[in-house]
UniProtKB/TrEMBL annotation:
Gene3D superfamilies from the UniProt entry: Enhancer of rudimentary
Residues that span the membrane, as ranges: none
UniProt entry keywords in alphabetical sequence: Cell cycle
Assigned protein family: Belongs to the E(R) family.
Function field: May have a role in the cell cycle.
Protein name: Enhancer of rudimentary homolog
Coiled coil segments of this chain: none
Organism of provenance: Musa acuminata subsp. malaccensis
Amino acid sequence: MQANRHTIVLMQSSPNRATRTFMDYGSISQAMDGICGLYERKLKEINPTIQNITYDISDLYNFIDGLADLSALIFDHSIQAYLPYDRLWIKHRMFQHLKRLASQ
């Protein structure tokens, strides 16, 4: 059941509470792709004239750390409830996710 665990990412991009939002994903893997996508859109916004933008895990970690808040609620089928995970867990999971993608 690990693969299809419904995941809600809670994010606040700045100290302004009005920037709070959430993103809804069908799996943890999709959520990690979604966070990468947010970062990639931010890079394109900052560098509109650069065609191919590259980054490494430390750049992604800096983006994650630069957010006012980031956490995830992941559905646990065994207890039929969502469990909270913090920014550090997301960074660890992101590393595992990207490592798995790179080895494919």
